[in-house]
Design a protein that fits this description.
The complex is a heterodimer. By secondary structure, chain A is mostly loops. Chain A is about 0% helix and about 0% strand. In chain B, helix 2 crosses helix 3, helix 2 packs parallel to helix 4 and helix 4 crosses helix 5. At the A-B interface, loops of A face helix 2, helix 3 and helix 5 of B.
Amino acid sequence: KKSTLNPNAKEFNPSKPLLSVNK
Amino acid sequence: QEPLTASMLAAAPPQEQKQMLGERLYPLIHAMHASLAGKITGMLLEIDNSELLLMLESPESLHSKIEEAVAVLQAHQVTESSLKS
């Protein structure tokens, strides 16, 4: 069956990072 | 972290409801597909909130939905790259 999910959906940005990543 | 309930969601404005659901879904998705987590979370957030709440309570249905999203995403990327080449 065809999926209803949309590959062009907007990316979700979490408000707080999961890991402490130093950029 | 306390579980997210329908009444907690209902108390928030619609845009915030998706953000709240996303904050719960994102770490679970990240554990399975770290590099695609943002995108997959965004795709799943287009699903009805009531269904998303059920998924948060049912890891099995969440996992199958995540796998579905990955498959859709990969099929889409293949289509895009074949159009470009």
